[in-house]
């Protein structure tokens, strides 16, 4: 691992908000891309924070502080990303499912999709399934991304799928899921169209969805 990435990870793991911006700037100066810094440095650091939380070494306060450090860094990196031709590729609805307030990953997905030419309609966190389906129905947007980190909230995915089916909209919409508790197996079980393990994967998935919808 590059030294500057290790410094970014360390700043996240130890919640050093006075260090994070300089650490990120150093990575940029060494030629690393914002995406590399996010995926390897910031997400890598948060993975360790999650492990420490699970081990009982960190508590909720540490999760909050580490999350704030990452949010500060992504805010700065957002300005460094090429905004692309915003909206050129069409619109995507993003939401974190009901009961789940994790939004760092969703916001990174939104940031990278925007930089790659999508217009993102971000419904936020803890979004009721009915609200997600109403947004699809009212806007006619055919691309939907759901973020889920809590295992306990997984049933919300199926709820969205079932509500879309009940409204006769399921076949018109392509759905991707992502977040710490997701997998391809879960995507298959929930009846959604794809699982993406990263924000970069999200771009490939929505590009593929667009082509499939054009052919259909
Ligand atoms: C930071 C954090 C928090 C912060 C969140 C701050 C915020 N603004 O988001 C706070 C303090 C709020 C929090 C709260 C809780 N948390 Co928390 N949290 C985390 C932590 C450490 C990091 C999450 C994160 O941001 N990761 C970095 C981002 C970039 O990764 P990501 O979300 O996975 O997103 C990437 C990909 O998955 C993908 N992606 C994400 N979404 C999507 C969507 C699509 C469509 C696609 C294609 C791709 C995609 O792209 C992203 C970028 O590459 C994780 C540990 C972990 N390793 O995940 C625990 C973790 C998720 N939390 C956990 C828990 C238990 C909780 C609490 C219940 C704790 C408590 N006792 O209160 C609460 C729940 C609150 C709620 N109702 O939601 C558990 C969940 C266990 C489980 N399997 O259910 C974890 C796994 C920690 C652990 N190991 O135990 N948490």
SSE topology sketch:
Elements: H1 3-13, H2 20-29, H3 34-54, H4 60-80, E1 90-96, H5 104-115, E2 118-122, H6 129-139, E3 143-147, H7 155-166, E4 174-178, H8 184-190, E5 194-195, H9 199-215
Parallel strand pairs: 1-2, 1-3, 3-4, 4-5
Helix pairs in contact: 1-2, 1-3, 3-4, 5-9, 6-7
The structure holds cobalamin.
Describe this structure in words.
The chain is an alpha/beta fold. It has 9 helices and 5 strands; from the N terminus they run H-H-H-H-E-H-E-H-E-H-E-H-E-H. The chain has a 5-stranded parallel beta sheet with strand order 2-1-3-4-5, with helices on both faces. The radius of gyration is 18 Å and the shape is globular. Cobalamin binds near residues 102 and 201.
Quick gist of this model?
With 216 residues, the protein is an alpha/beta fold. Helix content is 56%, strand content 11%. The chain contains nine helices and five strands.
């Amino acid at each position: 691992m590059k030294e500057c990435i290790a410094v970014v990870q360390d700043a996240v793991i130890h919640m050093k908000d006075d260090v994070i911006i300089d650490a990120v700037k150093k990575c940029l100066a060494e030629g690393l891309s914002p995406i590399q810094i996010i995926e390897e440095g910031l997400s890598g650091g948060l993975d360790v924070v999650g492990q420490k939380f699970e081990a009982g070494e960190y508590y909720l306060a540490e999760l909050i502080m580490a999350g704030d450090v990452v949010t500060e860094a992504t805010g700065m990196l957002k300005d460094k990303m090429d905004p692309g031709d915003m909206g050129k590729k069409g619109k995507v609805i993003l939401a974190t499912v009901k009961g789940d307030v994790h939004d760092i990953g969703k916001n990174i997905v939104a940031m990278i999709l925007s930089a790659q030419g999508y217009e993102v309609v971000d419904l936020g966190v803890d979004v009721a399934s009915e609200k997600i389906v109403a947004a699809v129905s009212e806007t006619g947007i055919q691309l939907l991304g759901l973020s889920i980190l809590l295992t306990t909230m997984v049933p919300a995915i199926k709820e969205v799928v079932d509500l879309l089916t009940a409204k006769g909209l399921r076949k018109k919409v392509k759905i991707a899921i992502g977040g710490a508790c997701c997998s391809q197996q879960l995507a298959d079980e929930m009846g959604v169209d794809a699982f993406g393990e990263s924000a970069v994967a999200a771009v490939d998935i929505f590009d593929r969805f667009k082509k499939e919808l054009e052919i259909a």
